Amino acid sequence: MQKIIPAIGLALILAGCGKSQQQAPAPAGPPQVSFVTATEQPVTLSSELPGRTSAYETSDVRPQVNGLILARLFQEGDLVHAGQPLYRIDPAPYQAQVASARAAVVRARAAISSTQALSRRYGELVKINAISRQEAENAQTGAQQAQADVAAQQAALRSAQIDLTRTTIRAPITGRIGRSTYTAGALVTAGQTEALTTIQRLDPIYVDIQQSSADVLNLRQQILSGELSRGGAAARVRLKLENGSTYPAEGVLKFTDVTVDPTTGSQVVRAVFPNTRGLLLPGMYVRAELAQGTKSNGLLVPIRAVSRDERGNPTALVVGPDGKLQVRQITAPRTVGQNWLVTGGLRAGDKVVVEGAQNLRPGTPVKAVPLQQGGRQASQPAQTQQQAK
């Protein structure tokens, strides 16, 4: 009986060893990584820059004659049209000037009749030597002076009529009118420094964008060298408003100022935007996305595929021809959407690792699968998943 018990124990131990050997996992294969293939493609480059809105047209309304304001003929903040009456100045003094000028014209015309008759009469008398030639010349000169006096009085009448029409102050442009700094009963003078009100045309509206002169210079050099190209159509511009929303309409780039501000080292780039709904007001701060040009052979790499080394230089992992990971130091000067624009360190056709290589070292053999659309890693076979467990 004592000999049977050790034999049974030995059999149980051997059975447990056999079961453990049967349940031992099979050796794991190379880790799987997802990659994208670097391909050359046209890339439109843009930059986001600060800017301020300004009115398309601005007019300060000032009086051109002296007098008392009798009435204000508009509501502050309204849309006014060119030629619309805004203020009425007391016209009585100017009406009197017009009447006086008309009377002066009539008097001057009456003088013409008498001087011309005298000049004709003296012209006949001088032929028979009844008067001296000097008297005849004086009569002829008097007739000419009377005609000139008529012209002068007619000019004075027109001037008086112009002043009379200026007693009604009209809008010089179409636009949104601001607050009135003068009310009825105020005395105004011609050429005063303070404006009665201001009219601004807000549709369309300007956006003045500040861009570094160094960036403008680099852009021009890239275009001249052929690295970037610009189409014949005007460049389109998008806006982000102060509250973070995107302005619904696109603008058009008009020109770049030829002068560099010596204090800031920047140039003004002006764009024009439609403003039919009146969302944009002068003086608003905006962010403008400005298209600079198109790079015909740009390489785009997802942002998550690029990391930094201990010196801060951008690097990327690629799958080499031998199926092993390789680290590449790249040149990535800017982002385009959700990608880095790579200008050095990668070539078209390289397999850039995007997912699955977080804990892997360069030189590690890997199983590379293409990254599925949407950025998800391709599913592994069931056997591989079980082995990974």
Instruction: Supply the number of structural domains.
Output: 4
What is the radius of gyration?
Answer: 44 Å
Instruction: Note the gap between the termini.
Output: 46 Å
Q: Treating each run of at least 4 consecutive H or I residues as one helix, how many helices?
A: 5
Largest sheet: 6 strands, mixed
Shape: elongated
The number of E-state strands comes to: 20
Oligomer: single chain
Could you please describe the fold and organization of this structure?
By secondary structure, the chain is α+β, with helices and mostly antiparallel strands. It folds into four domains: 86 residues, Beta Barrel (conserved putative lor/sdh protein from methanococcus maripaludis s2 fold), CATH 2.40.420; 106 residues, Elongation Factor Tu (Ef-tu), domain 3; 55 residues, Beta Barrel (OB fold (Dihydrolipoamide Acetyltransferase, E2P)); 76 residues, Helix Hairpins, CATH 1.10.287. It is built from five helices and 20 strands. Strands 1, 14, 15, 16, 19 and 20 form a six-stranded mixed beta sheet that branches. A six-stranded antiparallel barrel has the order 2-9-12-11-10-13. Strands 6-5-3-8 form a four-stranded antiparallel beta sheet, with no helix packed on it. A hairpin with a 5-residue loop joins strand 14 and strand 15. It is elongated. The two termini are 46 Å apart.
